[in-house]
Design brief:
The complex is a heterodimer.
Chain A: H1 8-11, H2 18-25, H3 37-43, E1 56-60, H4 87-100, E2 104-108, H5 118-127, E3 132-136, H6 149-155, E4 159-163, H7 169-176, H8 180-193, E5 205-209, H9 220-235, E6 241-244, H10 251-259, H11 263-272, E7 287-290, E8 296-297, H12 300-304, H13 322-325, H14 337-340
Parallel strand pairs in A: 1-2, 1-7, 2-3, 3-4, 4-5, 5-6
Antiparallel strand pairs in A: 7-8
Chain B: H1 21-34, H2 42-55, H3 59-71, H4 76-96, H5 98-108
Helix pairs in contact in B: 2-3, 2-4
The chains are: A alpha/beta, B mainly alpha.
């Protein structure tokens, strides 16, 4: 097993810059030039891609995380202490959520729970009646400073969507770091003890699978059955649903692809697996993504590539206007093939 | 051509439809149907394909079905077991022919 590397940011790696990532992602940068994503949409009669409402506000509260996973599209890690959402930006988010009419709030990072404003914000939006999702890395639940986190999430009936790339320690630790699988199981057991993932408790615990290498995810339904059987048999762990997500060629995963000579083949695989049926339910069509500094994006992936909401629409949470954003045209590039390959991929798993 | 086997030949497989598109079309339709879920799951079929790929020692098929098995959710333990099954059958197949050797030797010996 190769060791998990520090963040690209701390290594001052060229791919820590979004402009360098966009350069690598250009269709013509491949030896065999790929079809531009927009052209594939047009051929399928689906372009240009447009939003059709705002059902989810996804807030990326910052890049601070207690672990630096090899595939992280955020390049999050323990050294990312600067780029984290400030209290006034949380206030602007709350006002935007009010303006939309209390939609679903999806909080991500980094490890979002490490932002000191996470809990007060969750309390506030839950009190307003919004369903809230916490995208949790599981190991954060085992930190000494976060001993009461699971109880807090349960008390506020927050849905937990937890990353667990595989039900075996070898593959999980290869992606997320030595010992992460064992700690993740500890975290899952803690959640189960509170009722999370247990039928009838009302506390939802969903898992996220993502491939531990340069290949596409399996059929979501078959994989969910495997995870349920194996996690129950080996660890006595229960959960509600499993989402199979495709790794996006962004940031640390892009660096992995380039460094290991897998980039051309992986991009070719994504392009050849373009599935028009996966386009209708793309998450960017029903969500808005907010960055730690309040900038607005069509999705968390565009956020990491610095591709702000385009076509003259408001670009900062301070200027939020639901009507100007709900039918906006989506900004697309070659990485979008990651969400349309095979069965499709989104924060809620397969889309086709 | 410097080598008989070239990884870049795998994506060129469709060129085998050049000049004979009907045959290629028939092969593709049948091939696709074979790997659809039926009495066996897609994952089981990919594992069989991986094992056969080793038995026929086809580097293209090993390449394609290693990735195919991972994309169907198999892990290295399962995939390695599948290759052992293929190897056991190949080894056993060689060994069982030893009976033929023994019978012939018996026949020609005093």
């Amino acid at each position: 097993m190769t060791a998990v590397l520090p963040t690209l940011h701390s290594r001052q790696h060229p791919l820590s810059s979004s402009s360098e990532q966009l350069r690598v992602l250009q269709p013509e940068s491949l030896a065999q030039a790929a079809t531009p994503f927009e052209q594939s949409l047009d051929r399928a009669g689906l372009g240009p891609l447009r939003a059709c409402g705002i059902e989810v506000v996804q807030i990326n509260v910052g890049k601070l995380c207690n672990q630096p996973c090899k595939h992280c599209h955020v390049d999050a890690g323990p050294d990312r202490t600067e780029e984290n959402m400030a209290p006034e930006t949380f206030d602007h988010c709350f006002e935007a959520i009010r303006a939309i009419g209390w939609p679903e709030v999806d909080i991500t990072g980094g490890a979002p729970e490490l932002n000191p404003c996470f809990r007060p914000f969750v309390e506030r939006v839950r009190a307003a009646g919004c369903p809230v999702t916490d995208r949790c890395n599981l190991t954060v639940l085992t930190l000494r400073s976060q001993r009461d986190l699971a109880g807090f999430l349960a008390d506020h009936e927050v849905r937990v969507v937890a990353s667990l790339p595989y039900f075996l320690s070898s593959r999980t630790d290869a992606q997320r770091g030595e010992g992460v699988f064992a700690k993740s199981i500890q975290g899952l057991r803690k959640l189960n003890r509170l009722g999370y993932g247990i039928a009838g408790s009302g506390l939802e615990l969903d898992l996220v699978y993502n491939p531990t290498g340069a290949f596409l995810p399996p059929d979501q339904q078959a994989l969910e059955a495997d995870f349920r059987r194996e996690l129950r048999r080996r660890h006595g762990v229960e959960f509600n649903a499993l989402f199979a997500m495709t790794n996006m060629p962004i940031s640390r995963y892009l660096e992995f692809l380039v460094r290991t000579g897998n980039y051309e083949r992986y991009m070719g695989r994504l392009v050849s697996a373009f599935n028009p049926a996966a386009v209708r339910a793309l998450m960017c069509r029903t969500m808005i993504s907010v960055g730690w500094d309040g900038r607005l994006y069509d999705c968390d992936f565009n956020q990491m590539l610095g591709l702000e909401v385009g076509f003259g629409r408001p670009r900062h949470i301070k200027d939020f206007d639901p009507r100007a954003l709900e039918e906006r045209q989506i900004v697309t590039r070659q990485h979008c093939y990651g969400c349309t390959a095979g069965s499709g991929s989104s924060c809620g798993g397969a889309t086709a | 051509m410097d080598e008989y086997y070239d990884p870049n030949d795998l994506p060129r497989f469709a060129e085998m439809g050049s000049d004979v598109p009907e045959l290629w079309e028939k092969f593709n339709t049948w091939y696709g149907a074979v790997f659809e879920a039926g009495a066996l799951s897609k994952r089981e079929k990919a594992l069989i394909a991986l094992a056969v790929a080793h038995a026929v020692q086809c580097p293209y098929c090993i390449d394609a079905y290693t990735e195919g098995c991972l994309e169907q959710g198999s892990n290295l333990e399962q995939m390695t077991e599948a290759v052992h099954v293929a190897s056991a059958i190949k080894g056993g197949s060689a060994l069982v022919h030893g009976i033929q050797m023994r019978k012939i030797a018996e026949k020609v010996s005093m």
